[in-house]
Amino acid sequence: MNFLQRTALAARSLKGVSIGDAFGESFFGETDAILSQIQQRRLPPTRWEFTDDTVMAIAVFEQLEACGEIDQDQLARQFAINHDKDVNRGYGATARRILREIGAGGDWRAIAQNVFSGMGSMGNGASMRVSPIGAFHFDDLERVRTLAIRSAEVTHTHVEGISGAIAVAVATALATQIKMNGRSITPEAFIETVAGMLPDSDTRAKIRKSMAIPPDYHIETVKTILGNGSQITAPDTVPFAIWCAAHHLNDFAAALWRAVAALGDRDTIGAIVGGITIMSSAEANVPAAWVDAVEDVETSAFRTGMKQNINDDP
């Protein structure tokens, strides 16, 4: 597979991130009304704008588009530049602090390590932006793991934050293999393969635990076991997102409806699930209306690199 074909795959995953992100963001509001809309599968009025999840994923994608690698210094700079272009994209307080300090000329290594009393961040921010790496290097899981770690370390040095990034990147690679190689995989095998690439962590333990949860479990039970992102951490976000993706690999739309059903950090879970499942889903299950409606990454202020068409056949 040549470089441009790989870039097209990464661009497609980025599109999935942006759709899932904007989709999830539309389901914030009065809880009873939101739950009713989810039950009826009816979208609330929305502008289909993406959040910081997609903004940061754009920077990761552009690293791949440039050279297929992750240059941590360049990535840190681009994160800071894009943050300053629009600070109202939903960044959390810790992310704002890190990106402001990097933008002011600070060393990202020291900045990322020093948050949370020197423990580093275990947040879900490294997970929400990493899917393009898995799509680009789908046929080399060790390479995916290495680059996921590099992309995470710029802002997340805690093992949990890093584990979340690896999990999402590997899941995206597996989903891409399904489409590219005509591969079939059970949800349990999908989850176990993801978990097997992770360091010892709560994130890995909860992902493994999700193998025992049937797809028809009541969402409140699933949320109690796996979390729903309300704590904004990787262990509270990524296991549920991987479980959603594993049980809806062929159905992008159903995966996103399931992703928002647990409420919580629904834009981030949507971004993660969208970036994974768009790579394996049947085209009929990726609603054209959503593809057309979502804020265009290519024309956004955050896009600085060469344009790609996600509909190009890789």
Automatic annotation (TrEMBL):
SUPFAM superfamilies: ADP-ribosylglycohydrolase (SSF101478). Mg(2+) binds at residues 51-53, 265, 267-268. GO terms for molecular function: metal ion binding. Binds 2 magnesium ions per subunit. Keywords: Magnesium, Metal-binding. Its cofactor is Mg(2+). Pfam families: ADP_ribosyl_GH (PF03747). PANTHER family: ADP-RIBOSYLGLYCOHYDROLASE, ADP-RIBOSYLGLYCOHYDROLASE-RELATED. This is Crystallin J1. It comes from Flavilitoribacter nigricans (strain ATCC 23147 / DSM 23189 / NBRC 102662 / NCIMB 1420 / SS-2).
